Amino acid sequence: MANVRQFRLSFEFFPPKTDRGQVLLLETAAALGANRPVFYSVTYGAGGSTRDRTIEAVSGLTTAGYSVAPHLSMGTDDRSSVQALIDRYLSLGIGRMVALRGDIPSGFGSPRHVTHAINLVTLLREHAHPAFEIEVAAYPEVHPDAASPDQDLEHFRRKVAAGASGAITQYFYNPDAYFDFVARANVAVPIVPGIMPITSYANLVRFSDNCGAEIPRWIRSRLAAYQDDEASLKAFGTDVVASLCQRLIEGGAPGLHFYTLNQAGPTQAVLDRVHLPDG
Cβ neighbours of residue 159 under 8 Å, at least 6 residues apart? Predict the structure, then answer.
């Protein structure tokens, strides 16, 4: 597996709904900043106040001095509206975006619209500076809406050919799925594995059922047994995810992207157990 760029860490947030949440988000960003992430990403909600909260979170993080990659999707928006939002981000000094299909929260959830990400990648390449970094989604366990693994892989390759700089995967707990996807994709951009720390059995099952991510049976059974023992569940979850990360690193993954759910603790607990590559 070609490691085409320096190993990178990145962390994903969702936009807070309150002023207090915004303060806590900046505290989480500061705590995780000790790990020297390449960027923080912020998920996107289409329309109205949800979109405004994304912009507010991006602006707050940028003002605090962090490198931020906003998530963006076209959904039902017209081209001029999307261009206006891109221009607003460019005015904030944003140099990277995560281009997604429809209204997809990266890491979990299901799409509500059918405008494909390749259209947004093309628009970003046409509208923004040529050196602009564009991340797209990848699905090692196959997108739930794909007709076949081959179709899913071809769609991913088309996003790369349209101008994607790199990819962030859906979370998974089977590293072989990731290595198989990277080998079959055979693209010249980094495919960074998405990592979901485990802190709740019910939430993880709900997220995974929604997005098609597989929880291996042995993990699911152990988590179910710990449902009423929070400390044991979190300890087991940290063991599982840290082991996953270490195997990914040793196998040549170019980075790790953590779905933090706006909490520093679970992600940091994993990172404290992992030997990251130098540089």
Answer: 99, 117, 118, 121, 136, 167
Most confident of 64-78, 82-96, 135-149, 233-247: 233-247
Domain ranges of the chain: 8-271
Q: CA 258, CA 40: separation in Å to the nearest integer?
A: 10
Tens digit of pLDDT for each residue in 5-31? 689 999 999 999 898 999 999 999 999
> Of these residues, 12, 133, 135, 141, which one is catalytic?
12
230-250 and 217-225 helices cross at what angle (nearest 10)? 160
Q: In whole angstroms, what is the distance from residue 181 CA to residue 193 CA?
A: 11
CA distances to 78, 100, 187, 250, 276 from 138, in Å: 25, 10, 12, 20, 23
DSSP-based three-state secondary structure for 210: helix
Cα(258)–Cα(184) distance, rounded to whole angstroms? 24
**Other CB atoms within 10 Å distance of the CB of residue 118:** 20
Q: Is 154 a catalytic residue?
A: no
CATH class of 8-271: alpha beta
Q: Which contacts of 201-208 are long-range, i.e. CB under 8 A and separated by 24 or more positions?
A: 201/226, 201/227, 201/233, 202/227, 207/107, 207/108, 207/109, 208/108
Instruction: Tell me the whole-structure pTM to 2 decimals.
Output: 0.91
- Length of the chain, in residues: 279
